[in-house]
Design goal:
Helix content is 12%, strand content 29%. With 284 residues, the protein is α+β, with helices and mostly antiparallel strands.
Length: 284
């Protein structure tokens, strides 16, 4: 299933994408695509629905029908840094021996095609296409062998980052990671059974038509099962939590010389089977 949230910002309703590319409304069955609506039992009920009987929503998704973040009411937005060896190299940092963990504030979450704001005073706003993992079954101390059973599905994330604030303003990455609009999620949450081999997905990003990032999840330092298991040793994972799993090389910081975003640019990014995002940059 491709599950989504549609409508005006702050008024999104749950839906799914049917085989013809139309949005079907799920409001009679779940109140939002969040929390317990993402548990295995809830997803099984949604899977059993007759899609053709669901109301069709007018409009074309990502054209004249806005899509919101594909997960609502996110409890935790957890990120993994330097999880592609070649990205660590372009950042001038060693390949980690354990996952590098930081957080994006949930106030950073944005729709997949909403504008990205360049923060006031920023001169080093950067891009990062990443695979997002959405937790469906919560837990603690999850084994690697069982980890993927706790995943509801996957989505595209743009881990927008302000590099000066991340790297030059002390050691707290979070300052450069959680600005408003720095966390586009979507366009849809693709449930795990539809994704196939999550460790063999191509991902890419372009700015103004120039392809900067080309990668594949098979080159992750730590795979999805390892990340879910690892994080569960330090915190309880709960339905609707989002984990962003790191970016392949090609970020602005790694260009020679570095290239950073400015207002008026167009970002496009996507992951094989998970859809695409398109964002305009604007000045905050």
């Amino acid at each position: 299933m491709k599950l989504l949230r549609y409508g005006l910002k702050g008024q999104e309703r749950p839906g799914l994408l049917d085989a013809a590319g139309r949005v079907r409304d799920l409001s009679e069955h779940i109140t939002d695509l969040s929390g317990t609506a993402l548990t295995p039992a809830s997803l099984a009920r949604l899977r059993a629905l007759d899609v053709e009987s669901l109301p069709v929503v007018s409009g074309t998704p990502q054209a004249d029908l806005r899509l919101g973040p594909c997960v609502g009411q996110v409890g935790k937005f957890i990120c993994i840094g330097l999880n592609y060896a070649d990205h660590a190299a372009e950042s001038g940092l060693p390949v980690p021996t354990e996952p590098v963990v930081f957080a994006k504030w949930t106030s950073a979450i944005n729709g997949p095609d909403d504008d990205i704001e360049i923060p006031r005073g920023s001169v080093k706003t950067d891009w990062e296409v990443e695979l997002g993992v959405v937790i469906g079954e919560g837990g603690r101390y999850i084994s690697e062998a069982d980890a993927l059973k706790h995943v509801a599905g996957y989505c595209v994330v743009n881990d927008v980052s302000e590099r000066e604030w991340q790297l030059e303003r002390g050691t707290q990455w979070d300052k450069g990671k959680g600005c408003d609009t720095f966390g586009p999620l979507g366009p849809w949450l693709v449930t795990a059974e539809e994704v196939g081999d999550v460790q063999n997905l191509s991902l890419w990003l372009e700015v103004d038509g120039h392809r900067y990032q080309n990668g594949n999840t098979r080159t992750m330092v730590f795979n999805v099962a390892q990340i879910v298991s690892y994080l569960s040793q330090f915190m309880s994972l709960q339905p609707g939590d989002v984990i962003s799993t790191g970016t392949p090389p090609g970020v602005g910081l790694g260009q020679k010389p570095p290239v950073y975003l400015k207002a008026g640019q167009l970002i496009r990014l996507g992951i094989e089977g998970l859809g695409t995002q398109t964002q305009r940059t604007v000045q905050a």
